[in-house]
Structure formats: structure tokens, C-alpha cells
Design goal:
The complex is a heterodimer of chains A (about 350) and B (about 250).
Chain A lengths: L1 H9 L1 H37 L5 E5 L15 H8 L4 E15 L6 E7 L9 H5 L6 E4 L1 H7 L6 E4 L2 E8 L4 E2 L2 E6 L1 H10 L8 E6 L3 H8 L1 E4 L9 H35 L1 H10 L3 H34 L9 H21 L1 H6 L11
Parallel strand pairs in A: 3-8, 4-6
Antiparallel strand pairs in A: 1-9, 1-10, 2-3, 2-5, 2-9, 4-8, 5-6, 7-8
Chain B lengths: L1 E12 L2 E13 L4 E5 L6 H8 L7 E6 L7 E2 L5 H11 E4 L11 H6 L9 E2 L2 E2 L2 H10 L15 H13 L5 E5 L7 H18 L2 E5 L11 E6 L2 E7 L2 H11 L1
Helix pairs in contact in B: 4-5, 5-6
The chains are: A alpha+beta (about 350), B alpha/beta (about 250).
Chain lengths: ~350, ~250
């Protein structure tokens, strides 16, 4: 790194420029990752918070299972309850509705119907009330409705007492309101449904595929079942594509910079080789130089993401976590180094003989 | 000492090969400046490239070392071994000074300690004190912190000479060091190389086409069409003086 450090000092303007570009791309990637995480959490956190080892959805005759269209009939439910290896089956009803509190305007909520906690762990199960005339509100639902424990909310003409408030549970960008299975079935019928549960949260170790085939359902892990949420697929897919493209841009920009930079230094590299520099030491110099630029640029960019993310967290669905801040930074560094590695061909191919002059 | 023993080097030229060095045998002894001269295209720079291990000959041996040190056939080394040999036992001064624009004069010399292998040559480690001593020896003690752009052509070539000698090489190979300099500065540079060769006991091969420097050289080898056609003591007056001193 003897020459690399001095090059960084000598050509600091150029390196500050590329470092700033790296910092800006990191800021963009980090912000997009945070927004993607925040939006995803507002889309699926309630699904991820359901109990069970796998979630069972109705398998339509054609196409993929969908939370919006799934209805688990009695036959399928009994089929799962009686299957060998199944420990527990928790029927969960999910439907979008509206709730009001006092004279305030209606608030969109996701109505989840499931037995009270004890049937399994998870945020939503913990919210589920014991009584049919009670509801549990996620923190965001309580905040939107402006109510607390003991207050009353009205859903499709029926009034419920708020039994508990807490937890971060969202479904399709609406906060979750939990009810007992019977109360949920009644509400679903008032909203035009048939009162049958939407999904089964199944625990145990049955032959998942065989039981699913027999009951015309599909069984997937909580993460795997997220593809049955259309809004999640399209939303996260678009944002993830943007992030991937920014990663590509980052690798290209860094690679292009170091390719041009190394080509400009090709004569110096030939001289160093003629003097006795090993190719390995020159490669380490080049990669070390790129790493310094990347670490500084990504460090500044990540610090900006953390700072701005903390400020924006209250106003935007922004998720600030190691997954959304550090993973993109590490990926940026790896891709940037990969881009810089492309420039190494100039280093390895430099002929020390050229240092003597071309006229032999 | 460096000995080229029956060295032949050819280059591809279409569907045939051109002979650049044709069965050349010569020796440059320690403490002696051996000039290599000849017309343009005679193969003298190719000869230097072979001696510098920058190109492998088709046949023949390049023996480096002697005296109390080990002798190595550089023509038989792998590329990695040849690189290490250059780093430790060979000093090279190019036609152009070939200094790195980002380094100061002191750093240009100190860089020899950071080329990826052992930081020491056979005759001492490359330390800042040794660098400063060499910069002083080439007359640049007041210019150590200047970059190439702040130095004249002659000063840059002096830095290159210090860089070539800092690791105490057995062999100093110099390729047309005055080609970018005027006659006065060129004479000063060749004189400096001769003085340092005598002082430090380096075996120096100096390629030049400029016979103005003939009197400074201890031996002169003339190459024509890749062959050695003449080898003569070039500076009899200086050697006579040296012999008288010895007596």
C-alpha cells in the first residue's frame, strides 16, 4: 500500500469524486432498502406473526393460492386436524374492514379472527381477546382510532370493547384488529363473506404435500406464503429490482473508475514490475486502494442512511435495521471490489519490458 | 559481476524470426563500468533487457554474482524468481527517469523497500537513513521532498540512479541515461554513475550510443547486428592512473 496511499493523497480530487459517488449510491440503496423493509413490514408483519409451523391456504383449481381468495372449508379443516403428525391447527380468518370510534371518521383495519394466546406464540395471537364482544388492537390501529383499553370501537354496526393494545401488526398496509373466531365469522358474514377461516396455522410434522393434496390446499412456511399476497409481490418485487439495478450501477461505476485509473497508471505499473515488484503486491495495492475508497464512501453513505432514516422513521414506513443498513453496505463493498477487480487485468498484463522503451 | 555466456535472443517477425542478440559473451566486473555501444537497432538494448531478466534468451546463460556471493543463472529462473532477483540484486536506470508522479524524491527511492518481497538487498536494508545518504551522494540532499514535476531532467535521472542503488545491487544496468539530457547534464550523469560504480563496487553495464562519454567508461563493447564486434579498454588514462595509485 506504499504507492497506493500516496496515489490517494496525490490524486485526492479524483478519489474524493468517486468516493462521493459511492456514498450517494449507498445512500440511495440504503434508503430504498429501508423503505422496502418498512413497506414490507406494513404488508406482512401480521402474517409473519401468526402461530404454527406452516400456513395452509386454499389451493384454487387454477393459479396460485391467494390470501384474498382463500376460504378453508370444514372438510379441509378436519382433514388437517386428523392428519397424522399434526399437533395443532389454528383457524385464522382475515378480512379487510373499517372501524370507527365515537364520532371520528372510519379507519381501515385488517380483521384477524383467531383464538386467544395459548394456542401459539406470535404478535397477532397475543392480541386476540377471550370474549366475543372484545377486540385487541395493534398499536397503529389504536393510534389511528384514537382509543385505548376499555374504549369502544364499532365494526359493521357492532360495538366491541378494546381489551388490549400493543404490538406492531400490519396486513396489506392496514393495522390489525384481532377478534375471537366466532366474532370474526359474524363480522365476515356482515361484510358479505361466508364466515369460513382464510388460513390454517398448522403445527407439527405431517406429510405436508400429501395432506395438502388430499385437502386441496397448499402448505408453506410463513415466508413462503408471502407470495400469496399480491400487493407484497408487486411492491417488494419492484423495489428489489431497483435495489439490484443500483447494485449493478455501483459495480459498473467503481469498475469503470478503477479501470480508467489503472490504465492511466499502466506505465507506472510496468516500471514497478521492472524494478522488482511482484504482481501479487501490485494487485494488493490496487484492491487495497479500491477498498479504502469503498469503505470511506460506503461509511459516509451508511451514516447518512442511519441519520436520515432515524429522522424519517416517524413519517415514512422506514425500517432501520442491520438487514436494511449493513447488508446493503456489505453488498456494495463486495460488488465495488468485484468491479475494481476487473481493472486488475491491466496490472497483471503490464509488461515490465515496456519500461525500457519500445525501441529495441 | 555479470556474465553473459553465449546468449542468443530472437523475436518473431511474420513467419520467421529475427536475431536480436547473436551468441554474445561478455562480462561486466565489479567496480567497472562496461559501456555497450553500437548503431541504432544493433541489439544493445535487447542485450540489456536480457541482462535485466526482463526477457528470457533463446539460449545461453546470464550469470549474476561472484566473489563472496552466490552465482545465479538468471536465464534459468522462473518469472517470479527473476522478479525477486531484480528486487534484490539488480539495479536499473531507464532511458527516461520513469519516476512515479505521486512520490517525492525520497519516496521514489524508499519504494524499493515496498515492492512485495524482502525489504533488504544483499548489502543492507532500505532505510530512510540509507535513502538520504544516497540522495546526498547524487547531489539531491536539498530536494528530497520534491515530486518529479518539481525537478529538472538531470535531477530526475539522479533520483533514478539513487533508486537503482539503494538496495545495494550486484549489478547496475543503465539504458541510454543521457538521451533526454543536454550534453553538459548528460556528462555529469555518466560521471556520477562511474563514480558510484567505483565507490560501491557495482558491476555496471551502460548502454550508450554517445561516444562523448567514452573516456568515462572502463571498458567498451561494440555491438553490430546483435554480435559483439569489438571489446576494448575505453579509458586507458584513468586505468593507468589507478594502476599508478595501486603501485
Amino acid at each position: 500500500m506504499f504507492v497506493a496511499w500516496r496515489d490517494l493523497r496525490f490524486a485526492r480530487g479524483r478519489f474524493v469524486l468517486i468516493g462521493s459517488v459511492v456514498a450517494l449510491i449507498t445512500l440511495l440503496v440504503g434508503f430504498l432498502a429501508g423503505l422496502t423493509g418498512g413497506l414490507a413490514a406494513q404488508n406482512v408483519s401480521a402474517v409473519l406473526g401468526l402461530p404454527g409451523d406452516r400456513l395452509v391456504l386454499q389451493q384454487p383449481s387454477s393459479g396460485q393460492p391467494s390470501f384474498g381468495e382463500s376460504t378453508i372449508g370444514r372438510e379441509a379443516r378436519v382433514g388437517w386436524q386428523t392428519a397424522a403428525g399434526v399437533d395443532e391447527v389454528v383457524p385464522v380468518g382475515i378480512v379487510q374492514g373499517r372501524a370507527t370510534a365515537g364520532a371520528a371518521s372510519a379507519v381501515g383495519v385488517a380483521l384477524f379472527g383467531l383464538p386467544a394466546a395459548g394456542s401459539g406464540a406470535g404478535t397477532v395471537a397475543a392480541l386476540a381477546p377471550d370474549r366475543d364482544d372484545e377486540v385487541g388492537l395493534s398499536a397503529a390501529a389504536a393510534s389511528d382510532l384514537g382509543v385505548g383499553v376499555g374504549d369502544r370501537v364499532t365494526i359493521t354496526g357492532t360495538t366491541y370493547r378494546v381489551a388490549s393494545v400493543g404490538g406492531d401488526a400490519w396486513y396489506s398496509h392496514t393495522p390489525v384488529l384481532a377478534m375471537t373466531p366466532d366474532a370474526w365469522a359474524a363480522a365476515d358474514r356482515r361484510l358479505g363473506g361466508d364466515g369460513a377461516p382464510t388460513v390454517l396455522a398448522v403445527s407439527g410434522s405431517p406429510d405436508w404435500d400429501a395432506v395438502a393434496d388430499r385437502t386441496h390446499t397448499s402448505a408453506a412456511s410463513h415466508l413462503g406464503s408471502l407470495t400469496a399476497l399480491e400487493t407484497f409481490k408487486s411492491e417488494v418485487g419492484s423495489l428489489a429490482l431497483m435495489i439490484a439495478m443500483l447494485f449493478g450501477v455501483s459495480a459498473l461505476v467503481v469498475g469503470a473508475f478503477f479501470t480508467v485509473w489503472t490504465m492511466q497508471r499502466a506505465g507506472d505499473v510496468a516500471v514497478l514490475k521492472a524494478l522488482g515488484a511482484s504482481t501479487g503486491s501490485l494487485v494488493r495495492d490496487a484492491l487495497g486502494q479500491a477498498l479504502v475508497v469503498l469503505v470511506v464512501g460506503i461509511g459516509v453513505g451508511t451514516a447518512a442512511v442511519v441519520g436520515l432514516g432515524a429522522l424519517a422513521g416517524g413519517a415514512l414506513p422506514f425500517l432501520l435495521s442491520p438487514l436494511t443498513a449493513l447488508v446493503p453496505a456489505v453488498a456494495m463493498a463486495a460488488l465495488g471490489l468485484a468491479g475494481a477487480a476487473v481493472a486488475l487485468r491491466t496490472v497483471t498484463a503490464a509488461d515490465p519490458l515496456t519500461a525500457l522503451g519500445s525501441n529495441r | 559481476m555479470i556474465t553473459l555466456d553465449d546468449v542468443t535472443l530472437t523475436f518473431p517477425d511474420g513467419d520467421r524470426r529475427v536475431t536480436a542478440v547473436d551468441h554474445v559473451s561478455l562480462t561486466a566486473r565489479a567496480g567497472v563500468v562496461t559501456g555497450i555501444t553500437g548503431p541504432s537497432g544493433s541489439g544493445k538494448s535487447s542485450l540489456l533487457a536480457v541482462a535485466a531478466t526482463l526477457i528470457r534468451p533463446d539460449s545461453g546463460r546470464v550469470l549474476i554474482g561472484g566473489g563472496s556471493g552466490s552465482v545465479v543463472d538468471a536465464a534459468a529462473l522462473s518469472p517470479g524468481e527473476a522478479t525477486a532477483l531484480r528486487r534484490e540484486r539488480i539495479g536499473i536506470v531507464f532511458q527516461q527517469s520513469n519516476l512515479l508522479p505521486s512520490l517525492t524524491a525520497r519516496e521514489q527511492v524508499l519504494v524499493m523497500a515496498h515492492l512485495g518481497g524482502r525489504v533488504a538487498g544483499r548489502r543492507g536494508s532500505v532505510t530512510r537513513a540509507r535513502v538520504d545518504e544516497l540522495l546526498d551522494a547524487v547531489g539531491l540532499s536539498g530536494h528530497a521532498d520534491k515530486r518529479p514535476a518539481q525537478l529538472s531532467g538531470g535531477q530526475r535521472q539522479r533520483v533514478a540512479i539513487a533508486r537503482a542503488l539503494v538496495h545495494g545491487p550486484d549489478v547496475l544496468l543503465v539504458d541510454e541515461p543521457t538521451s533526454a539530457l543536454d550534453q553538459e547534464r548528460g556528462a555529469a550523469i555518466v560521471g556520477l554513475i562511474a563514480q558510484l560504480t567505483h565507490d560501491r563496487g557495482t558491476a555496471t553495464m551502460l548502454v550508450t550510443h554517445d561516444m562523448v562519454h567514452r573516456d568515462v567508461l572502463d571498458e567498451l563493447v561494440t555491438v553490430v547486428d546483435g554480435r559483439v564486434v569489438d571489446t576494448v579498454p575505453a579509458a586507458p588514462a584513468s586505468r593507468a592512473a589507478a594502476a599508478a595509485d595501486a603501485a
